[in-house]
Design a protein that fits this description.
Radius of gyration: 26 Å
CATH superfamily of the largest domain: MetI-like
Number of strands: 2
CATH topology of the largest domain: MetI-like fold
Shape: flat
Helix content: over 70%
Distance between the termini: 49 Å
Largest sheet: 2 strands, antiparallel
Strand order of the largest sheet: 1-2
CATH class of the largest domain: Mainly Alpha
Order of helices and strands: HEEHHHHHHHHHHH
Structural class: mainly alpha
CATH architecture of the largest domain: Orthogonal Bundle
Length: 305
């Protein structure tokens, strides 16, 4: 009798589990279908294309093995674009994180008018890339822009910010960092607001000053969020496209021709889709490697408790 009751109970539990699993799959199926169609299939197609060569307009595809990859590594232009992408990210990531962290420290705690500051910081993310590009091109205009007007007021020479090959890429990096400050500051603000105020009160009672509280409480407890933001910012800066396309188109003299923009040029202007697919695969592997290195080298120092 007891065995029969246990069997019936087990059967009911298994039936409930199957029912819950079926319901979960039905609810997830639209999202999974979209993920498969717009992410999985294009990724598989790009990987397959990278081992082929094709004629104009995608005709006469033939399997060529690793020839596309070998050509990429032999190309000085591609290696230069890879280095420029890394250089671009090295400028963007620290600048954006420092500015976002400073903004988060300012707006994390309530004070009169804090909502206004939070809105202002978020506007950098809310402004469309096209609108921001127009505003920055006007601000950096060599003849009428405010940037050179300010330099002249301090007795400094005017600059051709986006027209000079020595300043174009760093200028684009500053613009990219500015555009991402809002989103990064929101994440960091959420992390700061999760730190219990009791810890700061206890530290003040023990005689810790503001810097000591920042180093021993704020940094360790915000480190998981800070690590996430660092990872996202670094990877996003390596795939920045909109501001480069709208402001410099990779120029002048290919000085801002980052990796993602060279892929775009090869695919849609040089009509080398399979070659661009091979570059895309390498870029994906490069981003994956950087993410793994960050988890390996920095993730160990993150305090999750």
């Amino acid at each position: 009798m007891e065995r029969s009751l246990r069997t019936n109970t087990t059967n009911r539990q298994n039936l409930r589990i199957r029912k819950d699993w079926l319901e979960m799959m039905v609810l997830l199926s639209p999202g999974l279908l979209l993920l498969f169609v717009f992410v999985v299939l294009p990724t598989v197609e790009a990987f397959a294309l990278s081992f082929q060569r094709e004629g104009l307009l995608g005709r006469n595809r033939v399997f060529v093995g690793l020839e596309n990859y070998i050509e990429i590594f032999k190309s000085k232009e591609n290696l230069q674009s890879a280095w420029q992408s890394l250089y671009f990210a090295i400028i963007v990531a620290p600048l954006e994180i420092v500015l976002a962290f400073a903004a988060a420290l300012l707006i994390a705690r309530p004070f009169p008018g804090v909502a206004v500051y939070r809105t202002l910081f978020f506007l950098t993310t809310a402004v469309p890339t096209g609108v921001a590009a127009i505003a920055w091109s006007w601000f950096l205009n060599p003849q009428t822009g405010w940037a050179n007007w300010l330099l002249e007021r301090f007795g400094l020479p005017a600059k051709t910010w986006l027209q000079d090959s020595s300043t174009a890429l760093p200028t684009l990096a500053v613009i990219t960092a500015w555009a991402g400050v809002g989103f990064a500051s929101i994440l960091l603000t959420a992390g700061l607001q999760q730190i219990p105020e009791d810890l700061y009160e206890a530290a003040r009672i023990d005689g810790a000053n503001g810097w000591q509280q920042f180093c021993s409480i704020t940094i360790p407890l915000i480190s998981p969020t800070l690590f996430l933001v660092t990872l996202l910012v670094f990877l996003r800066s390596l795939t920045a496209f909109g501001q480069i396309h709208l402001l410099t188109q990779g120029g002048p003299a290919d000085s801002s021709m980052v990796w993602i923009y060279r892929i775009y040029q090869d695919a849609f202007f040089n009509f080398r889709q399979t070659y661009a697919a091979a570059q895309s695969v390498l870029l994906f592997l490069f981003l994956l490697l950087l993410a793994l290195l960050q988890f390996r080298l920095v993730g160990r120092k993150v305090h999750y408790e």
